[in-house]
Write a structure and sequence with these properties.
By secondary structure, the protein is α/β, with parallel strands linked by helices. The protein has 15 helices and 20 strands. Helix 2 packs across helix 6, helix 3 packs across helix 4 and helix 9 crosses helix 10.
C-alpha cells in the first residue's frame, strides 16, 4: 500500500461564504454561542469556522418554510417539476465546484466525488423532477352505490430533515428532493462536520427559481439545533439519516409531537460467498464494497461470510487487493482511499480493531494508522480481520471504517443464519452462479436491499431503506415520494336526498 509523500491539495477549492444557515433565500450566521469548524480530515486544517445555529434560527427557518408552504403546495405538479429540472441544470453547471468542496470537507477522493456523489445527486434531481408529475392514487369509483370515492395525495407540510456527514450532498438531496416534489417545504440540518455542500444545494435551489423559504438549512449541533428541529411544533414530519442510537432519540422526541418519522439508520451488511461463486469477482467486490468512502457507508460490506472451501483463497485475495489500495492526496485522481471523517472517528475505528486483536482476532492486512506525512490527518489502513467470534463487538457493531471481517461457513443454512445474525437489516449481497440458490438467499436474508454478485450500486429509480434496527421508510424512487404525502379519502354523495338510508341506524324520525 502506497501513500503520497505529502497531502497538499493540487487544485484550488472555491471559497464559500462563512454562513451556517440558509433561511428564506439568504445565507446568514447562526445565533448560538458555539463556533463550529469544518476540518479537512486529510490534513487536520480548518477549512471554515461559523457561528452555530440555535433554537432561534430553527424557529426562523420553520417560519420561513411555513410561510412558503401554501404557495409551493398549491403549485401544479408541472410547475414543481419544471423547478426541479432547472435545479438539476444548475447543479450540473456547478458540478466541479460541488465535487471539490465535497472532497475538501469530507476527505473523500475526488474521483469518488466526481464519479458518484455529484452525478448521483444530479440524476436524483432529474428523477424527482419527473416523479413530481406521477403522484398516482387509486381510481375514483362507486364503492358504495350512493357515493363516489376519490383518493387525493397531499403534502405533509413542513419537513424537518437531518442528514449525515458521510455523503453530505447526496444525503441532503435524498431528503430535499422527494419532499419538494410532493409539495412540502423543508428545513434541513446537515452535519455540523460537513455543511458546505448542503448550503450550496440551497443556494442552487434559489438560483433555479424555487421560491424563498421552500428550502432552508440550519447548521448546528444535534443536541441544540437538531433537538429544536425535531421537537418543533410546526414540523409535521421528521426524516433522519444517521446512527441507530441517534435515530432512537429522534423517534422519542418526534413521538411526543405525533409526527411522521422516516429513519435510515445503521447497517452491518453481510457479504455471502457460496462455494460456486466466481472467486475473483467476489474478492474484487469485497474490497470495493468494504472500502468505498473509506468504509463510511451504512451499506458497506462489513461481514464476509465465505464457504470454507473458498475461505483461505478469498482471504489471501482480499489481502492482496487491499495491499494495492493507494492512500494519499484526495485531490489526486490516482488516490483510492481518503481519510476517515475525523481524528476522533479514526481513534474509534482503531479501538475496535485493537480490542478484536486483543480478543484473538488475526489482523491479516492493515490494522493501523499510517505515519509520516499522513499522520496529521485521520487516516487508517484498509483492514482485514479473521478469527473473530460472532459475539464480538467488531462482528455485531457498526465499525464505519475500512474494516472487513471474514468468517467461514459450511452449509447454506449456516450462511443465512450468520447473515441474519445482526440487529441491522439495511443491505446484503450474495455471490453464487446458481440462480435457484440466489433466489432462496435473497428471500431468506432480512435486509432492505440484497445484491446478487455485486455490492453497493444504487439507482434513482429503486428504493433504499432498511428493516429491523436499520429503520423504516425509503429514500429515492417513487416509494420515497409516497413517504412525503398523506392520503386523503374524499367521498361525495350522488343522491341529493336529505334522508340517507344509513340515518335509520341513528334515529327513526
Amino acid at each position: 500500500m502506497s501513500a503520497e509523500p505529502a497531502v497538499v491539495p493540487a487544485v484550488t477549492v472555491p471559497d464559500r461564504p462563512a454562513v451556517a444557515c440558509w433561511i428564506a433565500g439568504q445565507g446568514r450566521a447562526g445565533t448560538a454561542a458555539e463556533r463550529l469548524s469544518v476540518i479537512d480530515p486529510a490534513t487536520g486544517r480548518v477549512v471554515q469556522t461559523v457561528t452555530a445555529a440555535g433554537p432561534a434560527d430553527v424557529d426562523a427557518a420553520v417560519a420561513a418554510a411555513s410561510a412558503a408552504f401554501g404557495g409551493w403546495s398549491r403549485a401544479t405538479p408541472a410547475e414543481r417539476s419544471a423547478a426541479l429540472h432547472r435545479l438539476a441544470g444548475v447543479l450540473a453547471e456547478r458540478a466541479e465546484d460541488l465535487a471539490l468542496v465535497e472532497s475538501r470537507q469530507t476527505g473523500k477522493p475526488i474521483r469518488l466525488a466526481r464519479g458518484f456523489d455529484v452525478p448521483g445527486t444530479i440524476d436524483n434531481t432529474a428523477f424527482f423532477a419527473g416523479a413530481a408529475r406521477v403522484l398516482d392514487g387509486r381510481s375514483s369509483g362507486e364503492y358504495s352505490p350512493d357515493h363516489t370515492s376519490t383518493i387525493r395525495r397531499e403534502p405533509v407540510g413542513v419537513v424537518g430533515s437531518i442528514a449525515p456527514w458521510n455523503y453530505p450532498l447526496q444525503m441532503a438531496a435524498w431528503k430535499v428532493l422527494p419532499a419538494l416534489a410532493a409539495g412540502n417545504t423543508i428545513v434541513l440540518k446537515p452535519s455540523e462536520l460537513t455543511p458546505l455542500t448542503a448550503l450550496m444545494l440551497a443556494e442552487a435551489a434559489r438560483d433555479a427559481g424555487i421560491p424563498d423559504g421552500v428550502v432552508n438549512v440550519v447548521t448546528g449541533t444535534g443536541p441544540v439545533a437538531g433537538q429544536a428541529l425535531v421537537g418543533h411544533r410546526d414540523v409535521r414530519m421528521v426524516s433522519f439519516t444517521g446512527s441507530t442510537a441517534a435515530g432512537r432519540a429522534v423517534m422519542r422526541t418526534a413521538t411526543d409531537g405525533v409526527k411522521r418519522v422516516h429513519l435510515e439508520l445503521g447497517g452491518k451488511a453481510p457479504f455471502v460467498v457460496f462455494d460456486d461463486a466466481d472467486l475473483d469477482a467476489a474478492v474484487q467486490g469485497a474490497v470495493a464494497g468494504a472500502l468505498i468512502n473509506t468504509g463510511q457507508d451504512c451499506t458497506a460490506a462489513t461481514r464476509a461470510i465465505v464457504h470454507a472451501d473458498l475461505f483461505d483463497a478469498f482471504v489471501a485475495g482480499v489481502a492482496d487487493v487491499m495491499a494495492t489500495v493507494r492512500l494519499g492526496d484526495p485531490f489526486d485522481e490516482a488516490t483510492d482511499q481518503g481519510p476517515l471523517i475525523s481524528a476522533a472517528h479514526r481513534d474509534r475505528v482503531a479501538g475496535m480493531v485493537e480490542r478484536a486483536r486483543a480478543a484473538g482476532a488475526r489482523v491479516v492486512r492493515g490494522g493501523r494508522a499510517p505515519g509520516g506525512d499522513l499522520a496529521a490527518g485521520a487516516w487508517y489502513e484498509p483492514t482485514l480481520l479473521t478469527g473473530v467470534t460472532t459475539g464480538s463487538e467488531v462482528w455485531r457493531d457498526e465499525v464505519f471504517g475500512p474494516v472487513l471481517v471474514a468468517v467461514p461457513f459450511t452449509t447454506d443454512d449456516e450462511a443465512l443464519r450468520l447473515a441474519n445474525d445482526t440487529p441491522y437489516g439495511l443491505a446484503a449481497s450474495v455471490w453464487t452462479r446458481d440462480v435457484y440458490r440466489s433466489q432462496r438467499a435473497v428471500r431468506a436474508i432480512e435486509a432492505g436491499c440484497v445484491w446478487v454478485n455485486d455490492h453497493i450500486p444504487i439507482l434513482s429509480e429503486m428504493p433504499h431503506g432498511g428493516v429491523k434496527a436499520s429503520g423504516f421508510g425509503k429514500d429515492m424512487s417513487l416509494y420515497s415520494l409516497e413517504e412525503y404525502t398523506v392520503v386523503k379519502h374524499v367521498m361525495a354523495d350522488l343522491t341529493g336526498v336529505a334522508r340517507k338510508e344509513w340515518h335509520r341506524t341513528v334515529f327513526r324520525g
